[in-house]
Amino acid sequence: MILGGGLTGISAAMHLTRPWLLVEKNDRLGGHARTDETQGFRFDKTGHWLHLRDDYTKALIARILPDKMTPVARKARIFSSGVLTRFPFQANLHGLPPEIAKECLLGFIQAHEEERASPDRPPPANFEEFCLRHFGPGISRHFMIPYNAKLWGVHPREITAEWCSRFVPRPKLDEVVSGAVGAIPPELGYNISFQYPKKGGIETMTRALIKEMKGGEVALATGLDAIDLTARKVQIGGEWRPYRAVVMTIPLPELLKRVVNLPPEIEQHAARLRCTTLRYLNLATKSRPKADFHWIYVPEEKYPFYRVGIYTNAVPSMAPRGKGSFYVELSDRGERPDLADITRQVAEGLAATGALKGPDDVLFTELKDIEYAYVVFDQHYYAAVNAIRPWLEAHDVFPRGRYGFWTYNAMEDCILAGREVAATIEARLAAQDRPIIHA
User: Fold this and answer.
1) What residues have CB less than 8 Å from 94, skipping those under 6 apart?
2) Could you write out the DSSP letters of every residue in 169-180?
């Protein structure tokens, strides 16, 4: 049984050799890796740029999408203090107002010297301390702390530092100095390049993966009603069905809500799982975008967004000829705003960044919400998941994927997780199927 038809569920179905049933509550597969079209403009569910590091996924994508992907060298920027600087902020201080650049550079040097003098200090207690220790007060104050507060929806002091080792670049001292004086350092970060379908948005890749699924059935527009771990059966569409193993990719809290007779200790851990929502705009423009970047990060609170991406700067086919297709990730997670009002605020902000020729260049917007977006790695996170995951697996329920495993990852990680869980299940069931030989 595969619960959830996002990339992890699709990948699990691709790699399983035993019969499977994939259950998806929506009317098509893909999860967040889907693309919608309005008036000839295409929009993913915010940015879904494909960053590949693993040889297996590289070969897989090349095989299922021959000549249908385009490689793109990243153009990411920071917009702060009224100027655009290169990404990451901490290694590209040149171009900022001189006093801010000086503050950031001296703070980084001080943090670097303190780290050299005391390498055996206890690890940072939270992400705020991580930023101050590794980047200094200036970089932390002007970018790291305000940006991540907008991204996560909670202050960085509420987040542990363990999540960020792969996703937050830590430049060396010479790289920071080079970036501060204008001697441009090499591109940094895990996402210095990416691939993207030449046509159709990210769902082109998703549909190619779906074609690889064999040996099972798909039930669309069908949600999970309940799961009985003791009896090893699930209720879908009002019908109870037995399972031998479950690949669980739906959000972890949603599964736990549906467990029959959930043990009190697991219920207590489940209550501590936190996740922020994501509200964003699909935005279409009347003319080609003024800026050439693929996405920007915006730390300042006066702007209603924290990240903006331009699909058409990577692949022009995402909009009619000569027009632009954007996603705009909004900071506000409160009551749903009036579309006209938030569109006006966003258009004025985008004009200030140089992304638009002017606010009147906006053709239309669509306001969207994602209920589960960013898992919050707070002080309860590891105790909770380290109790819940093995308890589920003891009942042959395998949580995987961004929301099933309850983590922060990328599309490639989901594809690999589906492959891994398929192999894990095959091995476990094979062991269960072996005859018992009595002496």
Assistant:
1) 85, 101, 179, 180, 181, 182, 184
2) ----HHHHHHHH
**Local structure of 93: helix, strand or coil:** coil
Q: Domain 275-375 adopts which CATH fold?
A: Polyamine Oxidase; Chain A, domain 2 (3.90.660)
Could you tell me if 50 and 202 are in contact, meaning their C-beta atoms sit under 8 angstroms apart? yes
The b/e string for 202-228 (b: 16+ C-beta within 10 A; e otherwise) is bbbbbbbbbeebeebebeeebbbeebb
As assigned by CATH, the class of the 2-37+200-273+377-433 domain is alpha beta
Q: What are 374-397's pLDDT values in tens digits?
A: 999 999 999 999 999 999 999 999
Q: How far apart are the first and last CA of the chain?
A: 36
Taking the domain 98-176, which CATH number applies?
A: 1.10.3110
Q: How many alpha carbons lie under 13 Å from residue 338 in its C-beta half-sphere?
A: 4
Residues 44-85 pLDDT 10s: 999 999 999 999 999 999 999 999 999 999 999 999 999 999
Taking the model in full, what pTM does it have? 0.94
* Digit-coded pLDDT (tens) for 178-198: 999 988 767 776 668 899 999
Q: How far apart are CA 70 and CA 387, in angstroms?
A: 42
